[in-house]
Amino acid sequence: MVRSPPRPRFAAAIPLPGNARTDTTTLSAFTSDRVHVHNPIVIETALVELLDSAEAECAEAGRTDLGNRLRRIRNRVLDPDQLVLVVGEPDQGKSELINSLVNAPVCGSGENVSTSVPSLVRHSDEPTAQLVEQETARSPVGGNRSRVPIESLGEELERALVAGHRVGRTEIGVPRALLENGLALMDTPAVGGVTNSLGSVTEEAVAEADALLMVSDATQELTTNELNFLRRATALCPNVALVQPKTDVVPEWRHIVELNRKHLSNAGIAGRIFPVSARIRALATRDKSKDLNTESGFPALLDYLRKEMAGAHEQLTRKLVAHNVTDSIDTITGELREELGNQSPRTATETLLELETAQRRAEDLKRLSGRWQKTLSDGVQELYSDIEYDFRERSWAVLHQANETLDEADPSTNWDEFEAWLRDSLNTAIAETFDWLDRRRERITEQVADELLREQVRTLPSSDAIPVPDPLSRVPAPKAPKNAGYPRRDQMLTGLRGSYGGVLMFGLMTSMAGLPLMNVISISAGLLLGSKSLNEEKDTRLKRRQTEARAAVQRYVEHVVFQVNKEARDAIRNTHQTLHDHCNRITEQAQIRISRSIQETKRMAEQSAVDRDARAREIKKKLEELGTLRKRAGSLTSNRIAAA
Questions:
Q1: N or C: which end of the chain has fewer CB within 10 A?
Q2: DSSP collapsed to 3 states, 11-74
Q3: What pTM was computed for the model?
């Protein structure tokens, strides 16, 4: 879940039972035949009752997926906040948009900064920040919460994720007039990439949102992925608007906006477009300029949020309920009409043919499951082997270049510069390795999808690009070699030791010729040998420092290789699990459909004419009930709500 537990606004007036259904007698105490919209308590009760009725129909039809979606919408009806989701592809300016709306840097933004978990921004009297863990069977309702300093929220989140905590979202409270009436803005992880579907986290949030702000900058038209995303999102949340930032860097932004308006119209997506500029908004705030603020486009967007979002919360909620209830009922109705059409008597030949076809499909599906599992398993095993070899080869190249440098240079004189070069080289190698890993992930995804294409609709799972890790922050820096200094006193002693032997040896040799022990020849030889000893000692010390430096670099690189391999294997394991779960879910759904088809065929073959007529009457009656329920859902967008 991405939201805190629902808080009913009318619980004190109308106690709701603990089960999934709302007591119809409670509603009748407030209504006769119709409920007028000016009573919010009765309206919310009617919406909850309508959702419960539709959810019961979904459960009866065996459509738990539709029922789960309606249950999330029910939580939205009971929540007094108005959740506005801010979504978009990477580097479109989602976080910067929220910062500009509330005039505060509440969300991390900038180059190489991405939203890893949803961030909920709501009103509070004092600036606050919390990390909210994902809800589990043992955790409190809504998940464990930990308050953190708002100025270090990014660092605390990264530390929690590295420590293995399952952080579901961050919650930020700021004292802003825009948020006083219950409006809440949520920054979400980027969507798009190799898939056209929603991410699991974002999809769950969309199902619970009152409205959606799609962010796509004004530098280009809406992409196919973005339009597909909007089609999918509007099936869950019909209240959509498009925000186009960066108008300050695109002179022809008006032309782009008009093209996008046509794209939305052609795609059947109803939503307003707001061209804005966060940079001009910041200048207007700094200079307190109304003209610049108007030019930024934010007043129109703020007015939309205040009036059409927060001010029209009731109408948006009814629209959300009507859309989802109608869609669920239409799905169930279509299945019932298909079953009604199958109630005609069948010959034994037709029944046998259908059974053979269904059984053949089941066998094909079994073979298909084996194929995609083998393709996935082989691809992942090959990737495990290749990724370790790939980075080790890159790290060896860096290590070889480092050794060549240390063979020529003195590590004591340029160690800081050398260490910075080493870190930059390893960072480059890590980025190249994970870029290659991401391309291999896409290729495996395509290969598995091609196997599914043979029997199923080609579909790709929701998966973001593999992020480049930062293992160097967890690896201790290589230590500089010891004994880098060579004091002048030690140099003098070394020179004296070398010169002593020279003076003595040549003095004895020249004394045989009648010269004294200390003469020009012996003293010159002593100076020469002393200088030679000093140079040899310097070379010995240099080679010792170079050896120590090479050993330190070797240990450092090996430690980095270990960390990178761990990160890479975790990323591959996550890719494997994502692909396996996605394909397995599709296969299971196909198996369920085939199993139902076989059971239905057998049931229809065994069913007598009397039974078929009875089932047909039962289906027709159910269709009438669903039709009545659909009319009630359709009346939500008018000024009156039909009672049960």
A1: C
A2: CCCCCCCCCCCCCHHHHHCCCCCEEECCCHHHHHHHHHHHHHHHHHHHHHCCCHHHHHHHHHHH
A3: 0.47
